[in-house]
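FAQ
Q: What does a multi-component entry look like?
A: The components come first, one per line:
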Amino acid sequence: MFIAIFSLTVLGGALGLFLGYAARRLKVEGNPLVEEIQAILPGSQCGQCGFPGCAGAARALANGAAPATLCPPGGREVAALLAAKLGVEVNLSEVKNAVPRIAEVQEDLCIGCTKCYKACPTDAIMGAAKQIHAVFREACTACGKCVEVCPTEATRLIPVPVTLQSWYWSKPAMQGTPA
Amino acid sequence: MNPLSSLFSSFRARGGVHPDGRKDLSAEPPIRLLPMPPLLFVPLQQHVGAPARLSVVVGDLVLKGQLIGASGGNISAPVHAPSSGRVVAIGDFPSPHPSGLPSATVTIAPDGEDRWIEADVLDDPFSLSPEEISARVGAAGIVGLGGATFPSAVKLNLSRKSGIATLIVNGGECEPYLTCDDRLMRERADGIVEGILLIAHAAGAKEMLVGIEDNKPEAIAAMRRAAAGTKVQIRVVPAMYPMGWDKRMIQVLTGKEVPAEGRSAEIGVLVHNVATAWAVREAIRFGRPLVSRVVTVSGAAVAAPGNLEVPIGALAADLIKACGGLLSDPARLVLGGPMMGTQLPHLNVPMVKGSSGLLALTGKEIGLRVAQNSPAPCIRCSSCVRACPAGLLPLEMAAHIRAADLSSAVGLGLKDCIGCGSCSYVCPAQIPLVHYFNYAKGELAALEKAKLRTDATRKLADSRNERMARVVREREEAARLRVAKKAAAEAAKAAKTAAEKAEVVA
Amino acid sequence: MISLTHAPHAHAPMAVGQIMATVMLALVPATLYGFWLYGWPALFLWSVAMATALLTEAASLFLQGRAAKPALLDGSAALTAWLLAVSLPPFAPWWVAAIGSAFAIVIAKQVFGGLGQNVFNPAMAARVMLLISFPVEMTMWAAPLPITSGHAPGFLQSLAITFGGADWANPADGMASASLLGHVKTEFTRGVDLASSLPAHFAAVQGGLMDAAWGNRAGSLGESAGLLLLAGGLFLIVRGVITWHAPVAMLLGVAAPALLAHALSPAHYLGVLPHLLSGGLMLAAFFIATDPVTSPNTPAGMFVFGLLCGLLAWIIRTWGGYPEGVAFAVMLMNSLAPIIDRYVKPRIYGRDRKGKSLQLEAKENAR
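Then the predicted structure of the entire assembly, as tokens:
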């Protein structure tokens, strides 16, 4: 009886010590996940997620303090990549921007104040003072900062128009099979 | 090549299917000229590559063959007016594309005179240098008329650079229903042979082979007669789909296989379609740009199927009308052949350079009866594996794509898929296999583009942050300098006063 | 946006339901012959298996909230039941067929996700389960008593055999008999070699083989009519429903070692023909090994699969504890099918077998 209790206690203690040692010995410095997540995020530091920049968002994601759907400019693609990286299930319909969007300056409302031009984190808006501004499509991440600062509500986000060049077949609908 | 190795090579060509040809519907009546429609809608993008750049404005009077859109880049083709008349509109018009999206289109109202521009008619086109022929083919807006619509001049130049030995002219026409190449070979064999000789001259090819499927005996006979006395050889190939796939045709005729990461020119072979050969001859001998083509109008819902010579830009509705209208409401309208063609949403879509056929199919023809309980679960019968001419495993690839695992599908060879549709055709469960593959290819391209974009915007954001930091740094530096200057000045002032004081003291 | 249908705008006439129907059609001659040979009990057993399969399939689909009608119409459940029924001893009690059928549909098929998802052939999985669980009932072979002969059990007596648990196996009735493979195995265990045991079983070996070809001897419901099954299989090959690779390879896999061993020691190893015409080999070669779901994807893979099926069957028959090993062999190979698929793949156009792009001839010469 005592022998059994004794031996099991010793065994448990020894293994516990071994595990503790292994945990210290094999400890990973820092969290590589944060950097990997940051590489997925758009990097425009727009702050729409409520965290201080993309690095802050990456830390929050790595700690599980934020959902994979937190990044509005990233849209579904970034959400799906984040979910895969974090190993979580994600409902892509929760993502705000189901379709990729882009900023547009409405020419009849723009007064050429250059506020959006200064606010844009990716230099996607071109123009000079007192001139109508234009959006450089390839550079816009649809972060929405220009929308916030515009005094005349001339900037807005619109879905990226589908063209003959960008169109492709959608995924076939699945019928007759369990989802 | 001896007959034995020829037999071996066709034996080695794997996969393929034997769909019901239905070519008898339209093969017998001779090619008719489509009565000039009241309006022609000529899209600026009718080829692979950059769209043509508009070179007319609304109100311009144009002659048949006059340039209305100039080549838009290295890989592009010009577009010409299909008849004489006035440009009445320029703008978006429904394009013959599966998206149904509109594209930039020049609308011309023909004046009925059909007057050609002044052309350079040559008595001896072979006196032109190969470079000059390529340039003229490019200027005539000739693209691959088999359906690929790749600019022909680009292929010619590439072939000359790679030093090709063999020109293969593709008269396979393996798509069911289509007979436009068949009729062209029967009626215009002499012109086609001249076109072949011109292409070979331009590309520097010594050997000229024409591959024709054995289900077109009259075309074979006509081409043999026309080719007699020339170095053009007519080869009969077994009828099966997709025999007209250029790489399959190369394999069957030469026994060579094009490497997956190479072009056919790299193994010394150039492939052109018979209709392209005809267009080349028209352009070089008569100086006529590509402004019309032969289109097969067929299907059980068409009253009088046949082949029409159609000006580019004629509406599908005009073609149907010229073929006696529709007998019944078609279950599906298709541009091209049934295996790879595009469904048309309606008949107000213009014919373009790549339009080989216009089909109005009934439910029975498209197999609606078979497709009732579709798609059913995959029973792994591997009919698709046996049908795939590229040697892929369609069922595995589709399963991965369905599970959103695109990288595994790529690992199985998704990028080697030629989209011929043989797998979907045979699948007893009606799984839209080739639809999965084209979706996946599009999704991969879009992801690739999105990734490039994200990288680019991240770089922009970084450089902006750096710039902002620099601005702040410079401002601070300036402020510091100012402070230092002020301090120095004060110090100097203090020193001065001290000196003055000292002087006073002294 | 208008939703347009992707090409192709034509379709081959064959659908899943028609494939299943064609396979069942190919089974009809052998099955009808079996009914004639073994009388009413065989028909009852077949009907019980069929009804149970359809009921359990419908119930499974209902529990999963899936539409039952398309699945029932595709005929896959009926085919499974049919294949199971023809591999059962004809005078087995009804509950053997019912349990087997329910097992095949629920455990071997629907639990894995339904049609197309199962790892093992449902009919063979059920047969193996029955053989292990109810060895007595599963090895009670009846001597053929054609329905036209006077000795055949009548309708009421047949009802009693199938549903009432009548003790037909009493040797006094003279109806029970051993299958050839079972007989050989038993005699071996008793230390009697083939030279002395076989003549006792067949008056004349030659005549016995002819009988075997026509199924006129003890065996299961449909699997004993070797030639009719062969004809059904050839019909399927002609119709393009199956390819020749798996059946030919499986017969070869049994015949080759049998030929070799029999030549070495005729007293200890059965010859080629008794092997080919015995037990479930013909049925398995043409109808089970060719089951698309549980076999490899490529023709070459099918050949490897069939060859190993045959080899395993011969090994189990010859050295195993059971007289018949076809079902075990097929199930073992079912589990190996994904591995065969991993290694036996078609060569992609323009690439070598490893998936690397072919080299240009000029570059090859330069090296």
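Q: Is there any commentary attached?
A: Sometimes. For this entry: The CA atoms of residues 40 and 78 of chain A lie 7 Å apart.
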